[in-house]
């Protein structure tokens, strides 16, 4: 694994995981999951998304990848980040400012995320802190250049990954979801089951 990669298996208790899912469910009132589209082609992503924080990551055909202060469909400001998240950031990120954004990705069993590098943030000196909730997923991590060697690992509910240093600039993606491997997501709110990933990001330089 590249320098700056840290996996903390089972870092969150079941109760903490449930609290985060409750916050994602509560967020639906003002910031419902929506399906973003790729720049230029307008091809829809296979994940649906929402955000917490003063800024949220969005993408659409005409505006491309960017951070916005409001939900693209409701126009509401994103809901505040739960305190558990900012506490975790302060414990793990080793950065002198709080994250502005927490992107929430919901993967149903058919969802994938292709290999990519996150470079829409000015603060590339800050780590990204990722939290896995719900079904297990195969996470793939490569190098800074396209087409290099990659390695994969399974992420489980309650795992936390810190991507700092060199790892921050590495390609990564989600190959597949393993359906039915967690009981965390309540069927009334997540009828298709699957996995929710939270990624905290510092966007602007501190
Ligand atoms: C490695 N999400 O939202 S989180 C994304 O599980 C994203 O939803 C995946 O990639 C998910 O952009 C992976 C782990 C992650 C997040 C950011 C990274 C790994 C990273 C940035 C640089 C290197
Ligand atoms: Fe990413």
TrEMBL record:
Entry keywords, A to Z: Dioxygenase, Iron, Metal-binding, Oxidoreductase
Entry-linked InterPro entries: Alkb, AlkB-like, AlkB-like_sf, Oxoglu/Fe-dep_dioxygenase_dom
Keyword hit for Cytoplasm: no
Listed GO CC annotations: cytoplasm
Record-annotated Fe2OG dioxygenase domain positions: 98-204
Source organism, top-level taxon: Bacteria
Biological process (GO), any one: oxidative RNA demethylation
Binding site for substrate: 57, 65-67, 120, 146
Binding-site residues, Fe cation: 116, 118, 172
Residues where 2-oxoglutarate binds: 105-107, 195-201
Note on how the cofactor is bound: Binds 1 Fe(2+) ion per subunit.
Xref: Pfam families: 2OG-FeII_Oxy_2
SUPFAM superfamilies cross-referenced by the UniProt entry: Clavaminate synthase-like (SSF51197)
UniProt xrefs under PROSITE patterns: FE2OG_OXY
Gene Ontology terms for molecular function: broad specificity oxidative DNA demethylase activity; ferrous iron binding; oxidative RNA demethylase activity
Cofactors: Fe(2+)
PANTHER family xrefs: ALKYLATED DNA REPAIR PROTEIN ALKB-RELATED, NUCLEIC ACID DIOXYGENASE ALKBH1
The protein, known as: DNA alkylation damage repair protein AlkB
Organism annotation: Maricaulis maris
């Amino acid at each position: 694994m590249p320098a700056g990669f840290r996996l903390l298996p089972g870092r969150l208790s079941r109760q903490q995981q449930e609290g985060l899912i409750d916050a994602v469910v509560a967020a639906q009132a003002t910031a419902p999951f929506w399906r973003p589209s790729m720049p230029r082609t307008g091809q829809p992503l296979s994940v649906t998304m929402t955000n917490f924080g003063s800024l949220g990551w969005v993408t659409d055909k005409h505006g491309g990848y960017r951070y916005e202060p409001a939900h693209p469909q409701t126009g509401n400001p994103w809901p505040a980040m739960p305190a558990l998240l900012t506490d975790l950031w302060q414990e793990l990120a080793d950065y002198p400012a709080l994250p502005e954004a927490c992107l929430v990705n919901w993967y149903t069993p058919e969802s994938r995320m292709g290999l990519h590098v996150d470079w829409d943030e000015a603060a590339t000196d800050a780590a990204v802190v990722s939290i896995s909730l719900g079904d297990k997923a195969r996470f793939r991590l490569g190098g800074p250049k396209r087409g290099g060697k990659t390695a994969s690992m399974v992420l489980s509910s309650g795992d936390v990954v810190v991507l700092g240093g060199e790892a921050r600039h590495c390609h990564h993606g989600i190959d597949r979801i393993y359906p039915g491997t967690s009981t965390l997501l309540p069927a009334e709110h997540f009828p298709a089951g699957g996995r929710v990933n939270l990624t905290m990001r510092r966007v602007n330089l501190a």
